Amino acid sequence: MSITFNPTRRALLGGACSLAAMPLTTRFALAEGNGDNRFVAIILRGAMDGLDLVQPYGDPAFRVLRPELAMTPDSGLYDLDGYFGLHPAARDLYPLWRRGELSFVHAVSTPYRNARSHFDGQDILETGGNGRAGQDGWLNRAIGLSQQGRLRAIDVASESDLILQGEQDAEMWSPKADVPIAADEIQFFEALYSRDKDFARAFRQARSADMSADEIFAGEKIEASTEGLARLAGGFLRENYRIAAFSINGWDTHAGQFDLFARSTNNLSTAIMTLRREMGPAAWGKTVVLAMTEFGRTARQNGTGGTDHGTGGCAVVAGGAFPGGRVMGQWPGVGDGELYANRDLMPTGDIREVAAAMLYRQFGLDAAALSTNIFPGLDFSASSVFVRA
Amino acid sequence: MSRQSAISAVRFGYGLRPGEDAPSTPEGIARQLRSAKSEVLLFPCEGVEAVRERAVRTFNKRRDTRKTLEGEPLREALRTIRQENDQRFRDDVNARIAQSVASPNGFSERLASFWADHFSVSFRKNEDMRLFAPLFEAEAIRPNLAGNFATLLKSATLHPAMLFYLDQWLSVGPNSARAGKRGLNENHGRELLELHTMGAGSGYTQTDVRQAAFLLTGLTVDRGAARTIFDDKRAEPGTFSILDKSYGAERDDIVEIETFLDDLASRPETARYISGKLARYFLSEHPPSDVVSNMIAVWTRTGGNLPAVYEAMLSASKALAMPPQNIKQPFDYVVSSLRALGVDGNSLVVDRKLGNLVSYWLQRLGQPVWDPPSPEGFESGRASWVNGNQLAGRIVIARNIVRKFGGAPDPSLLAEHALGPLLTENTRTLVKRAPNRMAAVTLVLASPEFNLR
């Protein structure tokens, strides 16, 4: 595959330019008429260190930047392609890689540059470029634009994620939520909320998600852990939900990164493997999971065994509906003069392009809408490398 | 009850208890800042001095234990220390909730919540934070919320809790005497500019962040004394240029850092950022711009005198006239529910099981005490707290509150007491028609007007 990194020729290859030689036929059919595809967004909050997850161990400069954090296949890294290696805490995901159900997109970021505020960064990631001013999330806007009609979406969380907030109805549920409301009380609550549209909508969501959860899990208690969230999301997706979102916290590794990062990475692995198990092979085969973070971290480790806020990051793409086993993106290198502001991984791609491509593949969303309404300012076209993959 | 008084109770306080009346004028609300000074704080349960002594004892005990024991006995001994620490912390959490339930000075309580959230710290950061998070609010935030912003900023920034939470205590100047294995951490420098003073996107640069981080090196915690110290062996030598001013010429104590904090406090960006945030928190997600600009003007004129800024907010004609619109956060929701039912705050301290239950409700609704999701604190907007999951949670908890603390003898009367003129005809009618007392009280607590302020 020519879009897989070829580090020896990375200055020439990588990304879209190498695709010119590819045949135009692609391995995926437009989602038209296929009402069965699924999409899961996972927000990795706190700025996941992509350079720790997918380490460029083939570049000697990397070890110089991170004497205590950099690993090699000899010290536990799982080799991906002879140049990149996967952090050992993600070992549970390695079989997916080998099976072609897992890829990474390196050196991507939102248009957010050089400011490095988690909160602004997350807002831009979730609104699709508008920041907080936009107030609604790109995944919410996508719900109504599918050629399959409105997609049923669920946010599994105790606080709602901005990515699914907005005008379109997206339900929300958490492992801890359960409203045992007797039939004769429902009309009281409906009347109680009838004069306030926000409360009325929230109550409808609560009822609807509650009934679904009861059907799917038959009253079984789900734990309020990352695994519990993934089970819930997987259960909803196995049935008639098509979109799910949730967050995994704990990536702000300023100090003592070695242990902290392993813990969060283990959570991410658990989430993906749990989704796969809970959905079952049929649904998983039609699913794309996209895990993304607000920005990457400094290429150099800092003085306290951690890393500070950076720019270029890494996205994780899993699921049976995307041909995986590749580290994608345009690798900028981490040598002298290759870093952004002499400190961060240089962002060479827009994470929003990856997200747009997944929506396009999964639901046949209109490319023009993806460039304007869903991701304002993104120049997305159907010839995107991530569509043709 | 006048409409002004009902609005003042929910917008600037934690709601009414039966038989209580809220001030109906800006002066009346502001007066609570003074009367709060003579209140005895319910947390930390042992008192500030005793907790400090316990922090020192705990530290020494842990250190000695590590020296004398090993293997399973060591783990066992450390576990015992941790468990006792945990238990005391849970008591403090319960007492923190009790404080807001019991206090007659609602405005001061709400300000304490606002500032503790503005200067967020979380008990999860490390084991010692179970001691330092309650101390932080009790000694760095509360005594300074009715003074000058610069004083509040300095006391929050220099408190051990903040130094732990933002990794400052580990940061070492790369050219300092202690440099070597450890070096710079820029977390605290960044949040100081981004969250605590000027606000994101207000004009400072990455270089400013980094220079501020250099200037802050030296600030660390002496665990054995449970206090902040300046360790010049960790301090990066040299001078640092931050926002076009130079600091660090005298680098053997904390004075240069305090000068920097004073300068940050007096920046126009800080006046703008915090005035806007106060107005959004108390008045509306979209506050009237004339009110905010007046607050900024007062801030500038008085050099950040907080009571004057609060008064500029309170005395705006809209402050007691605009209909309730902000959603109560979970803490406000639970506290105001308990107050509406006339629950005695002290019962949450005396009856540990009861206190733990109320703490659990806050956790369940997504706002546990001293445990914000990030240094930015808790979300405050309607979109974050008006959704299916949250509403389901509030309905369930409203029911539990009624179950635990008893339905009012007369739910209609309870509705009138809790909401006065804010009670809508719709809710009033439904409460009357409800099939039983418990359902009726649940409807009051779950109603839109009870959830707004």
Q: How would you describe this protein?
A:
- Chain B: Pfam families: DUF1800.
- Chain B: This is DUF1800 domain-containing protein.
- The complex is a heterodimer of chains A (389) and B (453).
- Chain A is α/β, with parallel strands linked by helices and 389 residues long.
- Chain A has a single domain (46-178, 221-387), classed as Alkaline Phosphatase, subunit A, CATH 3.40.720.
- Helices cover 33% and strands 13% of the residues of chain A.
- Chain A is built from 12 helices and 12 strands.
- In chain A, the strands form 2 sheets. In chain A, strands 1, 5, 6, 7, 8, 9, 10, 11 and 12 form a 9-stranded mixed sheet that branches. In chain A, strands 2-4-3 form a 3-stranded antiparallel sheet.
- In chain A, helix 8 runs parallel beside helix 9 (257-284).
- Chain A is globular.
- Mean pLDDT of chain A is 85; it is low at 1-34.
- The mean pLDDT of chain B is 95.
- Helices cover 59% and strands 3% of the residues of chain B.
- The longest helix of chain B is centred in the first third of the chain and has 32 residues, at 71-102.
- In chain B, the strands form 2 sheets. In chain B, strands 1-2 form a two-stranded antiparallel ribbon. Chain B has a two-stranded antiparallel ribbon with strand order 3-4.
- In chain B, strand 3 and strand 4 (245-247) form a beta hairpin.
- Chain B is mainly alpha-helical and 453 residues long.
- Chain B is globular and about 75 Å long.
- Among the domains of chain B are: 167-266, no CATH class; 330-451, no CATH class.
- Chain B contains 23 helices and 4 strands.
- The chains are: A alpha/beta (389), B mainly alpha (453).
- Chains A and B meet through helix 4, strand 7, helix 6 and helix 7 of A and helix 9, helix 18, helix 19, helix 21 and helix 22 of B.
